[in-house]
Design goal:
By secondary structure, the chain is an alpha+beta fold. It folds into 2 domains: 3-169 and 314-326, Ribosomal Protein S5, domain 2, CATH 3.30.230; 172-313, Alpha-Beta Plaits. It has 9 helices and 14 strands. It is globular and about 65 Å long.
């Protein structure tokens, strides 16, 4: 008789609060960064991953399917190799079939994908590893995976040895933050590697790095005081600085239509409607505000013709199902 563990997990994509631009050779960030895990109000925007693990004594095999297609190429081999190393360190061997799908994710799927994967492997192998240990594996595939793994508002501390992630505020503590996701349908986007390699070539990048501790300190303080307007003001300032550095070396995430929305948000604030833009590396702007202004912001976006999806701050990964079948 053969026993197979079947585990289904979900994890949520992320957006920046302190923009991550520039990494070391091991893919750890060059400076402390912050981010939010996000999803739709009914939590349908997510990565959902199902893992089948059948123990054997013949070594470990891995088949990984993303959105119905088996992953191949260099990136696919890297992910499969990382899974095999994780399994080997756990002193397990067996056959793994992993089926992962991204549901309505516009940006940040690598974070949620890695968080869902290692949360699922942890359960399927019955390892009971803490998140801190899973983090070391997840970040080898995505330098900001800790944002999804811990959920809520997180701070990634790069000077800790090893690197650590701290949840500054939970999703429940951030319920007063309201988000509107505005996707842009450009034919291409900059890759994370292009952003990391490019931003560090701007002569003003060292000035950004020097300012990071001050940004982080003030954002953390504001979040803990539930002063979300100050928190979002600082986040937009940090994100704007990162994109200006990228644009200074001819790397444009904020294309014309995205800039038009950014300008409209600035005008809205002049009229007392406090809304802010959060932009990572994808073709997406997340408009952030608080419950006090959410109705006005939604009306303004609709009036100006922007198509948006209401979002909220999301929590950490969840295990939807965990069972053992015998054949």
């Amino acid at each position: 008789m053969t026993k197979t563990s079947v585990v289904t997990t979900v994890a949520y994509p992320t957006i920046p609060i302190v923009f991550l631009g520039g990494i070391n050779s091991d893919r750890t960030p060059l400076y402390d960064t912050m981010g939010l895990a996000v999803t739709t109000p009914n939590e349908t925007t997510r990565t959902e991953t199902t893992i089948h693990f059948t123990p054997t004594s013949k070594g470990t095999t891995v088949k990984f399917f993303l959105n119905g297609t088996e992953i191949t190429g260099l990136r696919g081999r890297q992910i499969v190799d990382s899974i095999k190393k994780f399994v080997a360190k756990s002193q397990h061997t067996g056959d793994l079939i992993i089926q992962s799908k991204n549901i309505d994710i516009f940006s940040g799927s690598s974070d949620s994908g890695l968080a869902a994967l290692y949360t699922g492997l942890n359960a399927a192998l019955d390892l009971h590893y803490p998140k801190e240990k899973l983090l070391l594996h997840a970040m080898k595939g995505s330098e900001s995976a800790g944002r999804s793994l811990f959920g809520g508002l997180t701070l990634t501390k790069v000077h800790s040895r090893p690197l650590t992630v701290e949840q500054i505020a939970s999703a429940e503590e951030l319920e007063a933050i309201k988000l509107f996701s505005v996707p842009f349908h450009y034919p291409s986007r900059l890759s994370a590697d292009e952003i990391h390699a490019g931003i560090v070539t701007n002569p003003n990048f060292p000035k950004r790095v020097k300012r990071i501790p001050d940004w982080v300190s003030k954002i953390v303080s504001a979040a803990r005081k539930r002063d979300f307007i100050t928190m979002l003001t600082l986040a937009e300032e940090n994100i704007r600085n990162a994109h200006e550095l990228l644009e200074g070396v001819n790397l444009f995430v904020r294309k014309r239509e995205m800039m038009r929305l950014c300008h409209q948000l600035e005008v809205m604030r002049e009229r007392g409607i406090m809304a802010y833009y959060l932009i990572g590396g994808g073709n997406l702007i997340t408009v952030a505000t608080t419950v006090e202004f959410a109705g006005q912001v939604a009306k303004e976006l609709q009036t100006k013709g922007w198509s948006f999806h209401p979002y909220k701050v999301a929590g950490p990964p969840k295990i939807l199902a965990n069972s053992v079948t015998t054949v």
